Each structure stands twice: as structure tokens, then as C-alpha cells.
């Protein structure tokens, strides 16, 4: 069943079932293996000059809307930005020991992606080439993937109330299939981005660290973090890490945090945690933006739409979200520690608030159409 057929079915018969059902598993207990010969990209932060040519290339290759700020506008670097549904990679400016550095942010393409494990519609695929891709044809808009992602990468098309999709970096898979480099890698003038087999990139990173121990922190971000990722980051050394060998994730915490990277994700694949942590999230909370967005198609009667909207909201309020979130956070705390649990709780709370706001926005949209 594709996305449109699902929404049509939901509009005619699914409302009653959604209201009656207390919840459903987010995904089955499946784990995605990391492919041995998959590709990756090594991002050497010491080489990045913040030119944003990678952003411009990503925008052009993927036919994304042009941002408000020009790609050659340096003032953008002073604002800490995140990826979105229409901006799949961004470059941010950071400071280490009063020196400016720049780091590119995009989907990390995890070896065992949490987004794929969380998605009960199976919209995400980990491919042998290392990419994690999304198929919107069967997406129901629940946004479990956004909660599950440890890097907060997937973006949602909030401005598309009737057919929104989740969007993120595709690792330029169409280009990989043609034997071409990812657009951002091809555009980088400083060789800050190196494409290759993941294993070869790890060996290359180690050689750079060994050759210049005062230049690099002896830690390759993404080698083991979150179970390993296709995108790897080589960070500059700080006064605390310069010349020190094998500092490990906690020894590298300060310098990694200074360039916006979390070293407390652990080495266990996030996909192994996601299906258990999100399985208790009530179905109605996931679907209420879809239901609100589809109210106009259910009935052209203002009274019928208002009655249905109130019914859905009352059903949602009966869901014990607090208990579900506590269960999820306790599981993560047991497996990953208190800091990871704090991050997870904040992510869950933010997601619930976003869904609540999306429901209100959709409700206002229906009200405007009535007038």
C-alpha cells in the first residue's frame, strides 16, 4: 500500500481504529548490518575554510530551493544552523582555543541507522554502498525517524500540510550509482572531504594523526560512535589533546563538543535501541497531524470537521505519553548512561511539542478555509 492509498483509507475508516488503538510497535526488532565494503567520507575539519561550496553543490545537485542568504555570504557562518527538509547540509563556525574552525553537517549515514529501525513503514534503507535512503511513497508522516536519529538530521516538510515528506542527505546515491562523487565532495576546493571505502578512510585518518599529532585530536568521530557511521570526522587538536595518543571518546569530549559533536552516544548501534524505546509511543500522537491535515477531505461540513477534530484531541489527551516517555528514557539510561537519557528525554519532549504545534497549525488552516 502506498502513501496516498494509506491516507485515503485513513480518511474513511482509519480514524475510528486510531482512536480505539492504545498504541503499536514502532518497528520490529531488526538490526541492519554494516556492509564491509561500503563507502564513506572523511571530513578533515582542519582543512575546511567555510567557503560553503559544498552547500551550494548540494543545493544544485538535489534541485533544492535557494536559501534566503547567498552561498557566498560569510555572515551565515556566525549562526549555528541545522539541516532541514530543504537544506541537507550546512557549514557552521566553531572556536577551539580562540581559533576558528568550520565543520560540515549532514546525515552521517549510520552503519545501523536508527531511523530505519524506528520506521514501521520501512521507508529507510541502508544500502551496500553506505548510503541511507528514504522512500516517501509509503511514508505516513509519523516522524519517528526524527525522534530516533541521534544527530537530529531528518527534516519534515511542515509547509506541505496534505502530502509532507521527510527529507535528508541521500549521500548523492543517484550519483554514486553512476560512478560519480557526491556533489559536496566534488565541489570542495580544499580536500576537506575525502571519499572512499570506509575502511580505507579510517586508515587514512590514522596516518594523518600519527604524522601530525599536534594538529589532530587522536580520535576518529564516527568510527565507533552510534555503532559507526559512513561519514567520519577528523577534529583539530586542542591544548588539552595535542600530542596525546588514544584519548578515547571521553578524552576527546571537550574538543568534540566544541565543534558540535556528541561523544556520549556509545558504540552500540542506535538501531538496536530504537525499536524498544519507541515501541510504546501511542499511535494517535504520531498520526494526529495527518488526521488534522486530512479533515477537509473527510467531510465538507464545518460541524463534522469540528466534531472529528475534538474527538481526535480528546483521544490524544487520554494517551499516557508521560509513562511511554519514561519507559523509553529508562531503557536508554540503562544501556547508554544518564547523559544519553537526558538527550533522549529532551528529544522526545521536543518531538511531542512539535506534533502538538503541527496539530494546532493544521486546525487553524481548516478554520481559515471555513471563512
TrEMBL record:
Domain of life: Bacteria
Signal sequence interval, chain numbering: 1-20
Alphabetized UniProt keyword annotations: 4Fe-4S, Iron, Iron-sulfur, Membrane, Metal-binding, Repeat, Signal, Transmembrane, Transmembrane helix
Keyword Calcium appears in the UniProt entry: no
Molecular functions per Gene Ontology: 4 iron, 4 sulfur cluster binding; metal ion binding
Cell compartment(s), UniProt: Periplasm
Keyword Metal-binding annotated: yes
Predominant location category: periplasm
A single cellular component GO annotation: periplasmic space
Membrane-spanning parts: 275-298
InterPro entries reported in the protein's UniProt record: 4Fe4S_Fe-S-bd (IPR017896), 4Fe4S_Fe_S_CS (IPR017900), FDH_Electron_Transfer_Unit (IPR051555), TAT_signal (IPR006311), TAT_signal_bac_arc (IPR019546)
Domain 4Fe-4S ferredoxin-type: 39-69, 130-159
Complex and partners: Heterodimer of a large and a small subunit.
NCBIfam families for this protein: TAT_signal_seq (TIGR01409)
Protein name, as recorded: 4Fe-4S dicluster domain-containing protein
